[in-house]
Amino acid sequence: MASVNFAPPAPHDLVWLDDPASALEGAALPAWVSLPALHDTPVVVRRDGRRPGEIPVGLRGRSRAERFGTWIAPSAMRKLVTPMELAAQRAWRLRPDLAALPAIRALEAIAGRLGAAGIRWGVTGSAGFSLACAQNVLHADSDLDLVVTADQPLAAGHLELLGELQRNAPVRVDIQIATPYGGFSLLERLRSGGRVLLKTDHGPCLCDDPWQPSPCKS
After folding, report:
1. Whether residue 19 lies in the annotated active site
2. Beta partners for 205?
3. How far apart are CA 91 and CA 104, in angstroms?
4. Pfam families annotated for this entry (predicted)?
5. Can you tell me the distance from the alpha carbon of 62 to that of 6, in angstroms, rounded to the nearest whole number?
6. Mutual orientation of helices 102-116 and 125-132 as an angle, nearest 10°?
7. Which of 18, 40, 97, 143 is catalytic?
8. Fewer beta carbons within 10 Å, N or C terminal of the chain?
9. Distance (Å, whole) CA 153 – CA 105
10. pLDDT digits (tens, 9 = 90+) for 146-185
11. Is the pTM above the cut of 0.90?
12. What span, in angstroms and rounded, lies between the C-alpha atoms of 76 and 46?
């Protein structure tokens, strides 16, 4: 097994398995899962705190219907790539085969503005997955999924910029805000003016302030 020590992975991080068959032993894998393919393609870290000490991950196939959630041991990780690393490396510029796709064109158009504003952001979803490995799951109608890490409430200027980019991008942009307590949809926050559904390791909860979510409302 891998002996590399990694920082605890966060939701949306991409993880390559050292030995997929061993890492997923005992999981009731659906028929579309290819263990040999998992040597070259990552699993995606998700939110689920039901197994302390294990990492909740999701396996994805080529269609939206092909999704499977399970857990792995930390020792099963061979490599880890974060959404922020994909953004910092401008990973889409290394993939000319994807350059014509609308989601990738949108990334190129907005990356500079996000960086100039000092926003901590990364690429997730189909775009992040496709940029991180050779398996392309993007198509012409794919959304662009982004995550913004915010340990403190976002400044008004950052909210304004993110909202503008979300409204005016040439494709549908889904921006998730990651707080120390969980993640929520920027669009929902802008529409409601406050209350959001916060996705936590222990399930979703309604809260008025996602940076001070207690008590949560079911």
Report:
1. no
2. 198
3. 10
4. MdcG (PF10620), MdcG_N (PF20866)
5. 28
6. 100
7. 143
8. C
9. 29
10. 999 999 999 999 999 999 999 999 899 999 999 999 999 9
11. yes
12. 16
Rounded CA separation 166/118 (Å): 17
According to the 3-state scheme, what is the secondary structure of the chain? CCCCCCCCCCCCCEEEECCHHHHCCCCCCCCCCCCHHHHCCCEEECCCCCCCCCEEEEEECCCCCCEEEEEECHHHEEEEECHHHHHHCCHHHHCHHHCCCHHHHHHHHHHHHHHHCCCCEEEEHHHHHHHHCCCCCCCCCCCEEEEEECCCCCCHHHHHHHHHHHHHCCCCEEEEEEECCEEEEHHHHHHHCCCEEEEECCEEEEECCCCCCCCCEC
Q: Is the dihedral of CA 145, 119, 209, 191 positive or negative?
A: negative
- Told to judge if 145 belongs to the known catalytic residues of this protein, a careful annotator would answer yes
Cβ proximity of 182 and 198 under 8 Å: yes
Residues forming beta bridges with residue 178, ordered by sequence position: 149, 183
